[in-house]
Design brief:
Blueprint lengths: L4 E6 L4 H11 L10 E6 L5 H14 L4 E7 L2 H4 L5 E4 L11 H22 L5 E4 L4 H10 L9 E3 L2 H15 L6 E2 L2 E3 L7 E3 L4 E2 L2 E2 L6 H13 L1 H9 L5 H16 L7 E6 L11 E9 L2 E4 L7 H20 L5
Parallel strand pairs: 1-2, 1-4, 2-3, 4-5, 5-6
Antiparallel strand pairs: 7-10, 8-9, 10-11, 12-13, 13-14
Helix pairs in contact: 1-9, 4-5, 6-7
The chain binds ligand NAX.
The site of ligand NAX has 28 residues, from helix 1.
Length: 325
């Protein structure tokens, strides 16, 4: 058995947190030889619910789960943290403008960024799930000046998995046969799911589907999948979101397969002409606990226009909270 690692989950009594905690505690992220200390953060009114989650975790008797800390104190939750899932966020309320949402969340992620800076391990890996995820990650990172900005990422893996699955269904294959999907940009309806580099059984899929299907079916279906799930379930995606968060963190820590890259929202380094200073979803490969943006892919005109739209939305989000950076 290895030395235990500390995994922080914020919003741990919420829908996604409730899925995430059990899967991580049972070894589904880092394997059954990696002991876990779970550090669960909630707001004060949700502490009773969080206590219930802790009780259920204990009742599972997972051999990998060494200890549970349940708290409403961000400093305690991020103490010596190795992996941080920032899930808790302020949802959009009735009459709330997008700028109000950005501001309300900016307060939460400023506070948590500082707590990470002051308490977490310097090589901590942070994944922001709470929306608006890309910009929340930027705010947390800019409030953690002692931690490399590359340690702050946001989640587009759910979009990536949705895109793979939908395409696999269209082609009548299994989703693991779909390689090199890309989600570019923001985790929002402007995201661009790009199949121009996708292969299936070493064949380019672009030759197997029509442009009309890509434009009028594939792209809008992936972009609107979250809203469709809310309509069907009466609640937003939770189990699939937790599963994607685990995929993201596992691949970042243990490495991606050499057959395919994955999508992660990471600080832009200017690749593909994307402005530095925003957290943008790119194709990445991961090795030895680090990620690298896949460089020099050929981007066609169809893709260029869509990448620009999602980049421009992220630059606007950044401007709306610039004073807090
Ligand atoms: P829930 O409302 O079920 O849970 C959120 C939890 O966070 C609540 O228990 C709340 O008390 C807690 N919380 C709020 N502020 C907090 C703070 N300052 N510190 C600690 N905890 C706090 O939402 P859930 O369905 O779990 O979704 C969580 C977030 O994930 C939302 O922002 C949602 O929009 C976002 N999503 C992001 C996805 C992505 O792909 N990036 C997909 C799924 C999901 O929609």
């Amino acid at each position: 058995m290895n030395k235990p690692v500390r995994v922080t989950i914020t919003g741990a009594a919420g829908q996604i947190g409730y899925q995430l905690a059990f899967r991580i505690a049972s070894g589904q992220m880092l394997g059954v030889n990696q002991p876990i200390i779970l550090q669960l953060l909630e707001i004060t009114p949700a502490l009773s619910a969080l206590n219930g989650v802790s009780m259920e975790l204990e009742d599972c008797a997972f051999p990998t789960l060494k200890k549970i800390i349940a708290t409403d104190d961000a400093n305690e939750a991020f103490d010596q943290c190795d992996f941080g899932f920032l899930v808790g966020a302020m949802p959009r309320g009735p009459g709330m403008e997008r700028s109000d949402l950005l501001e309300a969340n900016a307060k939460i992620f400023t506070h948590q960024g500082l707590a990470i800076n002051n308490n977490a391990n310097k090589n901590v890996k942070i994944l922001v799930v709470g929306n608006p995820a890309n910009t929340n990650a930027l705010i947390a990172s800019s409030n953690a000046p002692d931690i490399d900005p590359k340690n702050f990422t946001a989640m587009t893996r759910l979009d990536h998995n949705r895109a793979k699955s939908y395409l696999a269904k269209k082609l009548g294959v299994q989703s693991n046969e779909i390689q090199n999907m890309i989600i570019w940009g923001n985790h929002s309806a402007t995201q661009y799911p790009d199949i121009s580099h996708v292969t299936c059984d070493d064949q380019r899929v672009l030759d197997a589907v029509s442009l009309e299907w890509i434009e009028s079916d594939f792209i809008p279906t992936v972009q609107q999948r979250g809203a469709e799930i809310i309509k069907a379930r009466g609640a937003s995606s939770a189990a699939s979101a937790a599963s994607a968060a685990i995929d993201h963190m596992r691949d970042w820590s243990l490495g991606t397969s050499d057959k395919s890259w994955v999508s992660m929202a990471v600080p832009s380094d200017g690749s593909y002409g994307i402005s530095p200073g925003i957290i943008f979803s790119f194709p990445v490969i991961c090795k030895d606990g680090n990620f690298e943006i896949v460089k020099d892919l050929k981007i066609n005109e169809f893709s260029k226009d869509r990448i620009l739209i999602t980049e421009s939305e992220l630059r606007e989000e950044r401007s709306a909270i610039e004073s807090l950076l």
